[in-house]
Structure formats: structure tokens, C-alpha cells
Amino acid sequence: MQGNNLHSSNTTRAAAADKLPFTRYDFGWVLLCIGMAIGAGTVLMPVQIGLKGIWVFITAFIIAWPATWMVQDIYLKTLSESETCDNYTDIISHYLGKNWGIFLGVVYFLMIVHGIFIYSLSVVFDSASYIKTFGLTDADLSQSIVYKAAIFAVLVAIASGGEKLLFKISGPMVVVKVGIILVFGFAMVPHWNFNNITAFPPVAVFFRDVLLTVPFCFFSAVFVQVLNPMNIAYRKREPDRLLATRMAVRTHRISYITLIAIILFFSFSFTFSISHEEAVSAFEQNISALALAAQVIPGKIIHLTSTVLNIFAVLTAFFGIYLGFHEALKGIVLNLLKRVMDPEKIDARLLTLGICVFIVITLVIWVSFRVSVLEFFQLGSPLYGIVSCLIPFFLIYKVRQLEKLRGLKIWLILLYGILLCLSPLLTLMG
């Protein structure tokens, strides 16, 4: 009888979840997810297609984007099954114990660190470049410690204000960013020329280029960094774990479908408008699709919109990944503190302030090394493969609570994770 009541309760909750309204809060997370994903990978996609050919791209995205969907969906569901949900390390500790929690928490932290280090470099150097270009100063502000500290202090203060403040600031930026992408896509429609579609390449070259393009497609559409902060936010907002999980999964689904539609339209619109020779020229000049659009759109408009797009892309991505960075760092610190002191004695406000100050100092020091963004970017693929593919696979086959997620899909995710881990070696094939 009790089992029937429990089944009836779960059925009722599931039905209620299906009827949940889509609120402004949900829309805010959709924008944050899309804002996290749309960036350099999106505007470089047409150049990559032009280099490798449309047939390679079609095959690569048929492999990569459904796989990326499965990876993020399973990743989110493994996090959502935990009874506790304060941070990533806490969730892993719930499943496997504190030692596994700290170990895998560090791996997760390294993935987030990789992302925020990339965007911190872009924030400082791009903003300093624009300030100098527009004649606001003759000095290179990226050399100034005061400038770097001020930039990061302001951004960290905003990002630490909670998701609602981020929605108000990042939301309009994402809308403008998506608007610019769509306008450029539509502007290229009159210039479509299907003669630009190249012939099918030799089989050996085709398979090699598909393997090289799959990771590129993955990074053009991934926003796994923001999924755990989103999961935690929904769990804190909705006490019913089932409903919170369904809301988070729904937001992920809407975000991903919208994102893929935008990328596909933008990429194909440019692909039909540029020849292989123009793509090669763009690659050699290290320019994006926006520069190619200057051929049909007045230069001043391109200059203004590309500047706005770049600034908004970097800021929204920084805000999105900061949530994960702060949460990952907090999880590691709490895991260590709970080993030596009573959790009740930990001052949450003081801990948050200390983490924020530490982040600002760390980012200032990191940016001062002036590491190449492109070289550092290449190191990230294995970290994403481990955190978003290999760790969920390990959890699902290690934890009885997650056994309902087992199946063929998980083995495909494992293979995809191995491919991401090997992708730095695959670049040597090019």
C-alpha cells in the first residue's frame, strides 16, 4: 500500500512538473547558458567549415552536437540525484566520500580554472586594447596592476551578487549578442552561392578532418561549466528535488536547442557565401566570419558591431564561468575546513569574502604572466572530457543510486570523452 502511495506521489509530482510555467527566472538561466556558449567558436565556425568543407562539417556536427547534448544531460542528471547540493565537491562526497570528493573536486576545479583563466586574459587585454584604440588613453593599461585589480574587483563583485543580478546584467548583453549573430546571418543570405559547396574529399582525408572538427563543434556549443551552478540554484529555489531537476533539465533543453539553431543558421549562411579560397585567406589572416562580412556590410558598422559582440561575448562568458569557479573553489575549501573544525562554526559571509579576494588576487597574478590565449585554450579539451564524460561514467557504474542512468548512451559518452582527451594529439594530424 505504501509503495502504491509513493508511486502515486511521484506520478503527481511528475505531472505537476510538466505543467510548470516558464518564468523569467528560467529565461534568465537560458540566456546565461547561451551567453556562456556563444563566443569565439561561433564566429570562427564558418572559417572552419570553409577550410574543411561542408561535408566534413555536416558529419562532424551530426556526431558532436547530439553527443554534446547527451554529455550535458547526463552530467546534469548525475548531479541532480544527490541528496545534498551545496557545491560540486559536496555532491561527489555524498556519492563516494570526502576523499573522492576532494580529488574529483580538484579535477572539476582545474576545468573551471582553465575557462576562467582564458576569459580573464581576454577581459584585460581586449578592454585595454579598445580603450587605447578609441583614444581614451595612450598607455597600455594591460600593463597596470591597478587596472587589472580594478577590472577583476568590479566583475567579481557583480558576479558574486547572485544569479538575479547576473540576469539583469548579462541578459541584455546576450540578447544583443544573439541579435548581432542573426543580423549577420541574414545579411549574407542575398550572397549565397551554392557553387561554394566543395566536392566530397578523399575518404582518408574526410575521416581525418571529421575527427579534427568534432572537438571544434563540441566547444562551439558547450556550456557544461554553468550547469552545476544552475542545478544548485534550482535546488535552493525549489525544495522538491524532482521538480528542481525537471526545471533544470528543461532549461538545459531549451537553451541547447536554441543555441544549435542559432549556430547552424549563422554557419550555413556564411558557408554558402564564401569560397574555399576566401576561407583559407581568413585563416591565414587569423580573422573571423565578422571580418568576412565586411565585404557586404559597411566597414563602420562591422567595426562597431564586432567590437560590441566581442566585449559582450567575453563578459557574459566570464560571468557564466565565474559561478562555476566560485562554487568549485568554495567546495574544496569547505571540504578541507570540515576536516579540522565544526561546520557550524564556519562563517559563510567571511568565507565568501575571502574567496572573492583570493580570486581577484589570483587573476591579477595570472594575467601578469601574459600567457597566449590560443596556446592555453588547446589544453582544455582533456579536462572537459574527464569532467563531463569520464567522471559521470564512473559515477553511474560506481553508485547504485545512479544505476537507472546506465545503458548504451553512457558507453557512447565514454567514447566521446576519450576522443576529447585525445584531441590535442589529433591536432598533430592536421
Could you explain the architecture of this structure?
The protein is mostly helical and 430 residues long. The protein has a single domain, classed as Amino acid/polyamine transporter I (Up-down Bundle). Helices cover 78% and strands 0% of the residues. It contains 18 helices and no strands. The longest helix is centred in the last third of the chain and has 39 residues. The protein is globular and about 70 Å long.
How do the helices and strands line up, and which of them pair or pack?
Blueprint lengths: L1 H17 L5 H14 L2 H13 L1 H27 L7 H9 L1 H36 L11 H15 L3 H25 L15 H19 L5 H11 L3 H31 L4 H10 L3 H5 L5 H39 L10 H21 L4 H5 L2 H19 L9 H19 L4
CATH homologous superfamily designation: Amino acid/polyamine transporter I
Shape by Cα distribution: globular
CATH class descriptor: Mainly Alpha
Quote the beta fraction.
under 5%
Report the biggest beta sheet as strand number plus sense, adding barrel if it closes.
none
CA-CA gap between termini: 64 Å
At the fold tier of CATH, the topology name is Amino acid/polyamine transporter I
* Helical/strand content category: mainly alpha
Average pLDDT score: 81
Oligomer: single chain
Q: Any guess at the CATH architecture?
A: Up-down Bundle
| Count of individual domains | 1
The number of helical elements comes to 18
Number of strands: 0
Order of helices and strands: HHHHHHHHHHHHHHHHHH
DSSP helix fraction: over 70%
Radius of gyration: 22 Å
Uncertain stretches? 1-17
